[in-house]
Each structure stands twice: as C-alpha cells, then as structure tokens.
Amino acid sequence: MNFAEYTKLAFNALRTNKVRSLLTMLGIIIGVSSVILLVSIGTGLQNYVTEQFASLGSNTIMVMAGDVDVSQGPRGAMMSASKFEISDASDLESGSDAIKQASPMVQGFGTFSYGGNTVSTEVWGLWENYFDLAKYEPEYGRIITQNDVERTRRVIVLGNKPATDLFGEGVNPVGKKLTLNDIQFEIVGVIKSKGGGGAMGSADDFTAIPLTTAMRQFNQDRPFMIFVEANSADEVTQAQQDAERILARRLKDDEFTVLESTQLLETITQFLNVITAALGGIAGISLLVGGIGIMNIMLVSVTERTREIGLRKAVGATPRDILMQFLIESVILSLFGGAIGIGIGAAGALGINQFVTTSVTPWSVMLSFGFSAAIGIIFGVAPAIRAARLDPIEALRYE
Amino acid sequence: MTTLLKIANVSKEYKMDGVVFQALDNVSLSIKEGEFVAIMGPSGSGKSTLMHIIGCLDRPTSGKVYIEEHDIFTANDAELAEIRNTHIGFVFQQFNLLRKTSALSNVELPLVYAKVTPKERKERARAMLTEVGLSEKMGNFPSQLSGGQQQRVAIARALVTKPSIILADEPTGNLDSKSGRDIMNIFQNLHDKGSTIVLVTHDEDVAHHAKRIVRIADGKIIADGKPPKRT
C-alpha cells in the first residue's frame, strides 16, 4: 500500500466519526492557537520596545534612580525612589568633556479634552534641551524654550498622536487651550511624528510641559531620571564613566545607575524573552494535553475496530500496513488541528492587535505546526503499534 | 493434480494459565488442486486451529506446512500476510464486511493490499460482484443487504485475488436455509469450474456438498475419505 492509499483510508475513517474527530482535534486547536497568540503578544511587545530604543540613538545614556543591575537580568531592573536634584543635570553637563548635554525629566499623567475628544497620555516635564537630545522637531509652532522653564510658564507641546486624536489630522492647534488638573495650558507646538520611539512610552504619544511647571503641577521636587547625550558614539563609554564619577560625589552607590541605552535595551529584551518563553511554555502544555487526547481516542478506535483490523490482516494487510493506517490517522488529526489552530491563533492575534501590539512570527507558526505533527506521531505510535501487533485470529473473534 | 497444501506432522500447543493444551497432535494432510474438502469435527476438536494453520493465520508449534512452494513455518508476519493475500480467500461465518463501506469497496480490499491500481481494482471487483449476482447492489452498504447477499459479497471478496484455496469457515452458519442453499450452490459452481475449496463445518448437510470429508477429534484426524452415500 502506498502513502496516498493510507491517507485516503485515514480520511474515510475520520469522516465516519466526524464529531469525535473534531473533538479530538479541539485539544490541538486550542494548544496551537494559544501558542501562536501568546507568542505573538510577547514578540509584539519586544518589537515595540526595540523600536522605542532605536529612535533614541546610540549616543544616549540614561541615569536612573536606584541600583539597576543589568547583569542580574529582569530582577535587577527595578527602579527605586529618586534622589536626584535638578543641579545634577547641570553638574553632568559642566563636569565632563564627553557629555554634550544632560536633561532631567519629571513624569506625570494627564487627561485632556477638546471638543468632545478625550485623550489620556503621559505628560513629560522637560528642559528645552530634551528636544534636541531626543531629536524631536516641531511640526507646528515651537518647542519648549529656556524662557518657558525659567518662568514656569503654562505652555504645552503635543506629541503627534494626542494632537491628531484631539484636533484631527493636519490641523494646527497652536494657540488653543487645554486643561490639565483644572489649570489651563496654552498649546505652543506640535511635534513632528517619528513613527518610532522616545525613551519612555510611544514616540508620538506624549505631551511635554516645562520641567519647572511639571514639578509644581505633579508636586514632585526631584527629577524622575536624567538623560545624557555623549558628544559622539565613540565617547559614550567615557561619558558613562564621567557621569558615574560626578554623581558619586553626591549620591551613594545604590542610589543611581548609569545605563547606556543598548544595555537597557538588552535587559528589557532579556526580560521579555523570558516572558515570551513562559507564555509559549504554558500554551505548550495544552498542546501536550491535546496530544494525550489524540492518543486516548486512537486507543479507543483501535479497540473498536479490532475486527476490522483482523479482517484486514486476514485479506493480506501486513503489520506495517496496519501501523501506517493508524499512525497516519493520528498525524492527520494533529496536523489538521494544528492548521486550524494556526488560523485561529493568527486571527486572534490580528484581533487583539488593536489593544496590544502583536506579531505572528514565522518561527512560532512553524514551531507549532512541527510540534503538532510530532505530537501526532509520538502519541499515535503506541495505538498504532498495538493495532499492528494484534493477532488476526483473536482480532477476528473479538466481539 | 498439483498439491496446493501440504501439512506434515503438525502439532499445535497452547499454554493457558500454565497448562499446556494440545490443539493439534501430529496431523498430516494434503490438498490437491481442484479438491472440495470439508473439515468436520465438534467444537474443541482442533478444527479451528487446523483452519487457522491452513489459512496461514497461525504457525504450528512443530511440523511442516507448505502452501504451494511457501514454507509457512519459517515465514515472518509480513510474508504470511502476503501469502494470505495471494493464496487464500477467506469466507467467514460472520461475513466480516467493513461497515460504512460499499459492497464494491469491500470486494476491492484484498486488491488494495495486493498493490493493484485503483482502476483495475474497480474493474475486477465489479466483475466479481456480477459473478455472484450482485451487479445491482455494488454501491450498497452491508447494512442495506440481506445476510445471503452479504455472504455473497464476502465470497466475491475471497475470489477477487484468484486465490489458490478458498477457505470457508461455517459459511452458512448465520443464514436461513434458503440463503444457505444459495451459498452452497455458489461453492458447488466454483468447484465445477475448478476452484479448490476447503470448508470447515460441523453441519453434515453442508459437508455433503464436498467430495472429501476430513473428520477431526481431539486434535487428530480420525477419518478422511469420500462422503457416505445418502439415502
């Protein structure tokens, strides 16, 4: 008997027990679709973070509060309460030849309404130099100026996303007023879309106000973190060492950490890798359960069809013929389940893409498909061997 | 006439709960081409065991079995399957047709394992079903056929590979007397055309269709000859 005959035989057998075949496949379908879905969420998250950092540039160094230890992996990447002063930024700028500029940041959150549209977004309190450091340019109006910071002015610069969400595409909102915590802010500018990243949060999804205004507004007397730009990519290491030396004069060792953006990216990627693997692993367990379901049903099927097996053997089926018949049946079950699962998983990933960034990767599709084929073989072998070994005389007598 | 089947000093022992049971005790038998043989005996006589050995479903504990040139004693399971496929046509008391499979596909089944092309398979199965008078029922499932019709499908399945020996185990055991007579007539016709038939039965009337009756009791052949004239 050749492969085509076995396949035809398997399809006929599966068709005669449609409901049972479908229920058996369900285990694999659920397993594969959850692997695809969960891995796509993890991968999407990773892509998002990587994009964020890519646009920040390799010259950037971040000074964070607390003892952030990259080598410790995700567990070390926890920040604690800030001990920074505004003056630290000035000290960094003046204390090292390798440092071009330093920019402290205060972070808050705001909800803005305009003409029935409402957006919630991050509010960054910044020095004027941040826009140069992070390579933001105005599309309309201007960026925040030194004057704004010095005078604690109530002006706001919108990222591209909140501007579009509030006022619509291509509309210049400069001069209009927005309310943040009952206080009116005048829109002085809109930032050109980067389509990529700023350091924290999405590249275009933020608003910015003067640092001094933000500290008053959010009742914070310390910057959340300090961005440092080295003169060039070659001087990043020097700048990092200088920053550590300068800050160590005032702060304890465990009160600050100086990180290159590539180092931080590595840490976060590592962390997300672990999450992705964990999610995939949990989903993998349900694939395993699906495989056991296939084995269970195939064992039942062999028992049910004992007489058929006996007859087939009597008219000339070799043990190999019987083995292949049942093995191909279970492989078809798992492959079909796998294919349907991939379809559902990909559709699900596409569906939730509106809420969470997802990315269906070829490797997760290939892995789940290969895995379900392997499950069909692994869990199909035992029932198939049992069928192939049946004694034809006993099998023909079986009631 | 060529000897198709040769059984020489065959014994078969079964172990059941540590007790050795002698199913066949030094049995010798040969069957020539074109013979119509009935094997008779009460249940437990070793009749079924002998049939299984003739049908290459089982190997003896000792002794020699030859189907034409094939030595059954030394053949492995795959070789036995091939010998069954090409040399033996089985007809069972329970018909043993595949459910949810058409009469035509049932008849095709042995040819599938003989690696015959689908086209030729269909042609040969159709011809065989026509020969047993079921040309109108080829697409029917076994559940849509009477017992007699089902057994005729089974006979067509046994004949389709043109086997050396047709081995029928109580072929009329599950049929009413009219259907039973029809089936025996088919065997009679096959014999007249030169087929070699081995019939296993405990029914004297059925056995009397045969030209030679082998009687077996307690694992030994106790009589072998022409059926007695009936009054």
Could you describe the 3D structure shown?
The complex is a heterodimer of chains A (399) and B (231). Chain A is built from 13 helices and 10 strands. Chain A is α+β, with helices and mostly antiparallel strands. In chain A, strands 1, 2, 3, 4, 5, 6, 7, 8, 9 and 10 form a 10-stranded mixed beta sheet that branches. The longest helix of chain A is centred in the C-terminal third of the chain and has 44 residues. The two termini of chain A are 28 Å apart. Chain B has a single domain, classed as Rossmann fold (3-Layer(aba) Sandwich), CATH 3.40.50.300. In chain B, helix 5 packs parallel to helix 6. The mean pLDDT of chain B is 92. The chains are: A alpha+beta (399), B alpha/beta (231). Chains A and B meet through helix 1, helix 10, helix 11 and helix 13 of A and helix 2 and helix 3 of B.
In short:
The complex is a heterodimer of chains A (399) and B (231). With 399 residues, chain A is of the alpha+beta class. Chain A has helices spanning 3-16, 18-54, 86-95, 130-133, 146-150, 160-167, 211-217, 236-248, 261-304, 306-314, 319-352, 362-389, 392-397; strands spanning 60-65, 99-114, 117-126, 138-141, 155-158, 177-180, 183-191, 206-210, 225-230, 256-260.
